[in-house]
């Protein structure tokens, strides 16, 4: 998992992701705002923890995959991800090894 970050650092990363995404998204969705993108990423991060630093520095192809996938598949009423979408920047769960009983 990514190293723990403060709320301020998290907000700054999400805000910078939204700033990067806004011009790309506006090419296809005219009525989208910086705040819309921030809220989608923030709620997604609560449902599926994201490696926000990795997300911000993704190449354009992977960045657009995740930002449009979140926009299309995140249900803003139930606050759940639909259609089995999992962002490529999702934080990797820690490997848990359980002892097998004989």
Q: Uncertain segments of ≥5 residues (pLDDT<50)?
A: 95-100
Number of strands: 2
The largest sheet has its strands arranged as 1-2
CA-based shape: globular
* CA distance, first residue to last residue: 31 Å
Q: Determine Rg (CA atoms, Å).
A: 15 Å
Helix percentage: 40-55%
Largest sheet: number of strands, sense, barrel closure: 2 strands, antiparallel
Number of domains: 1
Give the mean pLDDT: 88
Label the structural class. mainly alpha
SS strand fraction: under 5%
Oligomer: single chain
Q: What would your notes on this structure say?
A:
With 102 residues, the chain is mostly helical. It has one domain (7-81). It is built from four helices and two strands; from the N terminus they run H-H-H-H-E-E. Strands 1-2 form a two-stranded antiparallel sheet. The longest helix is centred in the N-terminal third of the chain and has 20 residues, at 7-26. The protein is globular. The chain starts with 6 loop residues before the first helix and ends in a 21-residue tail after the last strand. Mean pLDDT is 88; it is low at 95-100.
């Amino acid at each position: 998992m990514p190293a723990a970050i403060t709320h301020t650092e998290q907000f700054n990363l999400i805000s910078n992701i939204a700033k990067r995404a806004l011009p790309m998204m506006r090419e296809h969705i005219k009525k989208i705002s910086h705040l819309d993108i921030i809220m989608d990423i923030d709620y997604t991060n609560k449902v599926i923890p994201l490696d926000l630093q990795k997300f911000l520095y993704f190449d354009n192809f992977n960045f657009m995959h995740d930002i449009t996938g979140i926009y299309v598949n995140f249900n803003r009423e139930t606050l759940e991800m639909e259609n089995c979408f999992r962002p490529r920047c999702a934080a990797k769960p820690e490997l848990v090894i359980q002892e097998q009983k004989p």
